[in-house]
Amino acid sequence: MSVIPNTQVNQNSDDIELGKILGILIDSRWFIITITFLFAIVGISYAMLATPIYKADALIQVEQKSTGMPALGEMGELFASESSAMTEIEIIKSRMILGDTVDKLNLTTISEPKYLPIIGKGIARLQGDQRNLTVSRFKVPENVLEPVFELIVIDSSVGKYELVNKSEDRVLIGEVGKLAKNGELELLVSSLNAEDGDEFTISKRSRLDAIQWLQQNLSVNERGKQTGILQLSFIGESRIKIERILNSISQSYFLQNVARNSAEAENSLQFLRNHLPDIKSQLTASEDVLNKFRQENESIDLGLEAKSTLDVMVTIEAQLNELTFKESEISQRFTKEHPAYVALLDKRRALLSERERLNQQIQKLPKTQREILRMTRDVEVNQQIYVQLLNKVQELNIVKASTVGNVRILDMAQSYTRAVEPKKSLIVIFLTLLGAIFATVFSLLRAAFHRGVESPDEIEAIGLPVYASIPMSDWQIELEKKQKSKKQLSIADSLLAVSNPADLSIEALRSLRTSLHFAMMEAKNNIIMISGPSPGIGKSFVSANMAAVIAKTGASVLVIDADMRKGRMEKQMAATTKPGLSDYLSGQDSINNILKKPGVDGLDFIARGDVPPNPSELLMHPRFGELMKWASEQYDIVLVDTPPILAVTDPAIVGAHAGTTLLVGRFGQNAVKEIEVTKHRFEQSGIEVKGFILNAVVRKASSYYGGNYGYYNYSYSNDK
């Protein structure tokens, strides 16, 4: 004996599930196509209406800092330093640089034409709207919380306009090219291109907000690694505007760089200029003292040894003074622990030691020579210091004049001709795919959460046999349209069994007729009650057409519309509503008066009659039992159409008189649990439900691929 592996069973189950999913997608194909098409339309519309965003870029080179005068030697080294690219990028994005651009271009003022919400701007662009407004000055009082105004063109020929606030109050009237004032409110419109009645929106934002807007749209990156080449990029709606903004940023950065390098030389120059008057005063005083001493001592000359010592002393003093200047400059850049600072201090100590040694040597000279040597040394030292300072001043003047900074603008701003945003093709493709995915997922979720019965097996699983599955009839749909458009119809235009006897739905009812023959063999009478769980499931359609099908076999059939609340079977029977069942039960008419002949041999019909205030009480009247007894004796089959059991109790009352009870449910509408509750409700009333009729079955791909069977047309076709 062979055993089927579990893997094979699981595989078959998976195949069925995959097949059902495929079937669901096939059933929902038009929904998926429609939603995908709508998403594609939205994508195309957005791509056409979205405002294009352009990009402009510029190139800046950042070189190693230098004075621009390599010949100055040690003096130039004081101003040399390196600046990393990241530091320069942050400087460019600083409020110092961007704020200057905001001020130059008046970016705190925002002006644009007034458009329709969402789509207005795109439509205006597609229509070639040339409206334009340039505001050179716009000052708003500080107490205005929301500085948003509307400018309305009054006379475009002379450029006259009015400014209104959010409350539509006029606050200003002005002309193009003239400054308009109203208290603290000031407006200067430099250019206006519009027609009479055109409106513009003018708003004011803070300087910080404008700077943040620049920071958001500005991108600065280094090209390559440690190349010092910075690429500045800016995005915006107007190509001209973004070029101006980027050029302004580049120029501001360049000028501040030059100004900073010049400032270093200016600080040193100022330091030297402050010391020149003191040194000159000291030189004059020392010369006067020397001349006076010589006059008093009759011009004593120095010996060779003293003169040699004087030269050395003067040289040492000059070097010490030079170190003093260097220390004042280097102290601004480094601490005393820096190697350069330490070397300078060591050199000073060595010079001071040498000067002390020479001073001790001078003490050995005669007193007169010592004095003249000291005075001569002071004169020459002060003279050398003064000359040295003058030379430094000239050198720094040259440095300042020749400073060009370490920044060079390689490429001025230029915008691309094609917009960088939106990516039209990508947007259309993305939204189309999104629509397809959304429609597919929605279809699968709808099928997953859908609890409507779509297979007879689901009903039979609760112990209720399915007597027939009636397919959806396109012919019946057309008949229902005729019933809505025309008030009076013949039975051939209202009843499907007469209008199109070969319809698949009628064939299914013929199958039901055969099943009923065996189901009623043990019934207590020939009365059949048709009910269901909810309205709109086709009970009346089944009752009327099944009665016509049975009548065509030669049997006498009576159809009673027992739904005295919302019954509409008279439309299918091409009969009138009055008189009817309610009239008989209330004692207003007799049985013979309420019987109607629809036009089918062997078929009689009783309509519902007037809508009574108490349908349930009328059905409990003995007259209804007498009617059922009389009908059972007079007809071969009695069909009673009742309202839904889950809505009212009428079917439970009628079911007590019926020998056979059938339930009708609609394909894909009634859930299994709903049908089970309906069956249980009848059983609580002591009524046995013989079977179930699944109505309006639609041939779906999900059922076909899921393993369910369908219906086949096997009728005779007459080709003429």
TrEMBL record:
UniProt keyword Magnesium present: no
Gene Ontology molecular function terms on file: ATP binding; identical protein binding; non-membrane spanning protein tyrosine kinase activity
Keyword terms: ATP-binding, Cell inner membrane, Cell membrane, Kinase, Membrane, Nucleotide-binding, Transferase, Transmembrane, Transmembrane helix, Tyrosine-protein kinase
Domain Polysaccharide chain length determinant N-terminal: 14-105
Swiss-Prot/TrEMBL catalytic activity: L-tyrosyl-[protein] + ATP = O-phospho-L-tyrosyl-[protein] + ADP + H(+)
Main location: membrane
Transmembrane spans: 30-49, 426-449
Cited InterPro entries: AAA_dom (IPR025669), Bact_polysacc_biosynth/exp (IPR050445), GNVR (IPR032807), LPS_length_determ_N (IPR003856), P-loop_NTPase (IPR027417), Wzc-like_C (IPR005702)
EC number: 2.7.10.2
Pfam families linked: AAA_31, GNVR, WZC_N, Wzz
Enzyme's top EC category: transferase
Membrane disposition: Multi-pass membrane protein
Subcellular location: Cell inner membrane
Coiled coil spans: none
Gene Ontology CC terms: plasma membrane
Residues annotated as domain Tyrosine-protein kinase G-rich: 367-448
Domain AAA: 527-649
Similarity section: Belongs to the etk/wzc family.
NCBIfam families per UniProt: eps_fam
Protein name: Tyrosine protein kinase
Phylogenetic placement of the source organism: Bacteria, Pseudomonadati, Pseudomonadota, Gammaproteobacteria, Vibrionales
